[in-house]
């Protein structure tokens, strides 16, 4: 399947127009030599480990939820890890596509999947996506007769740069009311044309058309749960939904693990800007700052944090199914095995004394004793060192 056809399918599943204006979505890396797409790798983040995996799979397209290229770049050099990845993708002939906030916003996307972890409910969008109308302005005027209307339409047809739509109705003895919509770029020429010819200038009005909300699309979700659950159950449900052994919980003021959660507000990733001020029994997001958590808790809202990408990654498996059924069977759609949140829990381990990463943090007493022993060695050897901070 050609890359352009895959990209078209991706945009059908989540139109890029749903992404936030600050975002950098769509096809980010496009190799010069087109080749059929046979293997697609889905990842939350494009890291060096994921690129190793993509190369070992001879992948043709990487779909990285977070855009690996975000800020404008003036050079492609090896010292920047994201630029290195872009270079590796190009050299291996791999394309890179990023959907990011278009997946967050789309109905049935990341945030609907996230809120679904607490069970069914009445779900609404926290920050609505609006769409601009196809034409930005409306012009209205009145003509006295059908002949004048036809003359005006002929005049307007000569104005290029926009597709004109018109409707007209005739009220008794008040002439014919005509309404056109047009693009902003076509507006000056249209006004000039109408004013200079058949249309009395006093009857011409111009108004700007408002954006309209796109039902079900936008950032964050709120849900009034069909079956309220306790805070403790909410934690267990989210752990199962996100396939995590640990979550962090801040209990809202006056709440306990047995308090009931009826209303929940979620936002995948770093959700404070969307969740802030929302009345809910519980917030679920990837990360919030210390002070944002304090604000939520003080207003009686409990907070579950999963770490950033853990609140997003599970959607890759949902999307994999949606994409695979729309592509020929010969195209493999895989979810990365190497992709993971950079913050990991360190489980207790008693394998062996020097078990590196798996060794738990030593308790404070051990650290203090070790520091005292080190101090003793330094003193007894006669060395003096300035303290390091
Ligand atoms: Zn994110």
Automatic annotation (TrEMBL):
Main location: cytoplasm
Localization per record: Cytoplasm; Nucleus
SUPFAM superfamilies: NIF3 (NGG1p interacting factor 3)-like (SSF102705)
One Pfam family per UniProt: DUF34_NIF3
A molecular function (GO) term: metal ion binding
Function, in words: May function as a transcriptional corepressor through its interaction with COPS2, negatively regulating the expression of genes involved in neuronal differentiation.
Quaternary organization: Homodimer. Interacts with COPS2. Interacts with THOC7.
Name used for this protein in its record: NIF3-like protein 1
């Amino acid at each position: 399947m050609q890359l352009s056809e895959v990209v078209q399918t991706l945009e059908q599943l989540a139109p890029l127009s749903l992404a936030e204006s600050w975002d950098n979505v769509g096809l980010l890396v496009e190799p010069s030599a087109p080749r059929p797409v046979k293997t697609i790798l889905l990842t939350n983040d494009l890291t060096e480990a994921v690129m190793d995996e993509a190369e070992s799979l001879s992948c043709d397209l990487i779909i990285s939820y977070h855009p690996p290229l975000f800020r404008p770049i003036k050079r492609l050099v090896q010292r920047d890890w994201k630029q290195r990845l872009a270079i590796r993708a190009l050299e291996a002939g791999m394309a890179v596509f990023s959907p990011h906030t278009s997946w967050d916003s789309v109905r049935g996307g990341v945030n609907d999947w996230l809120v679904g972890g607490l069970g069914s409910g009445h779900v609404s969008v926290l920050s609505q996506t609006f769409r601009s109308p196809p034409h930005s302005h409306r012009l209205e005027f009145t003509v006295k007769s059908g002949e004048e209307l036809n003359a005006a339409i002929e005049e307007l047809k000569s104005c290029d740069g926009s597709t004109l739509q018109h409707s007209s109705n005739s009220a008794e003895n008040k002439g014919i009311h005509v309404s056109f919509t047009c693009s902003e770029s076509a507006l000056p020429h249209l006004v000039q044309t109408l004013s200079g010819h058949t249309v009395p200038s006093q009857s011409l009005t111009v108004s700007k058309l408002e954006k309209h909300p796109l039902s079900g699309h936008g950032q964050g979700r709120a849900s009034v749960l069909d079956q309220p659950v306790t805070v403790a159950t909410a934690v267990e449900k989210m752990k199962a939904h996100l396939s995590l052994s640990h979550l962090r919980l801040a209990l809202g003021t006056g709440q306990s693990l047995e308090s009931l959660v009826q209303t929940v507000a979620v936002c995948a990733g770093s959700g404070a800007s969307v969740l802030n001020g929302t009345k809910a029994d519980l917030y679920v997001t990837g990360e919030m700052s210390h002070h944002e958590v304090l604000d939520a808790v003080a207003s009686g809202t409990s907070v579950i944090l999963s770490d950033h990408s853990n609140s997003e990654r599970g959607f890759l498996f949902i999307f994999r199914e949606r994409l695979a059924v729309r592509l020929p069977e010969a195209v493999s759609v895989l979810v990365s095995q190497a992709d993971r949140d950079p913050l990991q829990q360190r489980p207790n381990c008693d394998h062996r004394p020097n078990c590196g990463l798996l060794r738990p943090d030593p308790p404070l007493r051990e650290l203090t004793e070790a520091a005292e022993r080190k101090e003793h060695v330094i003193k007894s050897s006669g060395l003096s060192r300035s303290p390091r901070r």
